[in-house]
Amino acid sequence: MLSPELLHGLRNLSLAARQVAEGFLNGAHASRRHGAGMEFSQYRPYQPGDDLRRLDWRLAARSDRYYLRESEIDTSLTVHLLLDASASMNHRDDNGLTKLDYARLLLASLAYLATQQGDAVGLTILSPTGLRHLPPRADARQLPRLYHALETVEAAGSFPDHATLAPLTARRQRALTVCVSDLYESEAEISTLLTRLRATSGDVLLLHLLSHNELTFSYQGAVTFRDLESGQTLQIDADQQRPAYQQQLQQWLRDTAQTARRQGFDYHQLSTAEPLDGAIREFLRKRKNS
């Protein structure tokens, strides 16, 4: 898997998403991992009218015959992607990537994967000024729409309030909801939203995104921190505060994971310094079981 900074350096979200998804699937096939969209029960000859996306072009090139891969998991889903676009997602890691940069790459890759599986994919960008919502679709034009929305999103303000979020939970539609967020909230508004979505839509996969410098507290000496959402500042000695910070962070992460799982979410922690394969594997596992 390419590193997140190399993928971001491509400056082409469509190309990066394809590189991530196909690189993962090729690696998974070589290692014989099991999971949705990665292993196939059998091949059968192509017949007119078959979906060309399931055609094994490599096998065709070697044998001059056309075969379709019949997946062990052959059902399509509705996949609803949620992006937290509050200002805290502007936090920048030591590798130069913001959380929003990483989230763009991840969600674009998941959208590409889901589309290749034949799923209807939608996207909702959560910001205080309102929801930017692309309803789930399975047509060929949906991916460019999703890429454009992700490329143009800007993180600002705090997480939207209940009134802004209300349209998301007003309708019942069976879907696999995938939320990417750093889970910085003031009154449990994110977990409240996901609880309601689980009740109205079904399965929820929560991808908790943190930066590497948050996890390791790599700062040194006197540092001034500014809250990206409230603007408040705090001056500390990083070396002196590191032990207490790391202890409190680990406790918060344990509590967050336990709470999410108690509420029925699938929870997975991510770092902006790590390749995207962990999140993709969780998505495919969840898709297989949905």
TrEMBL record:
TM stretches of this protein: none
Superkingdom of the source species: Bacteria
Domain DUF58: start-end pairs: 42-249
Signal sequence region: none
Name of this chain's protein: DUF58 domain-containing protein
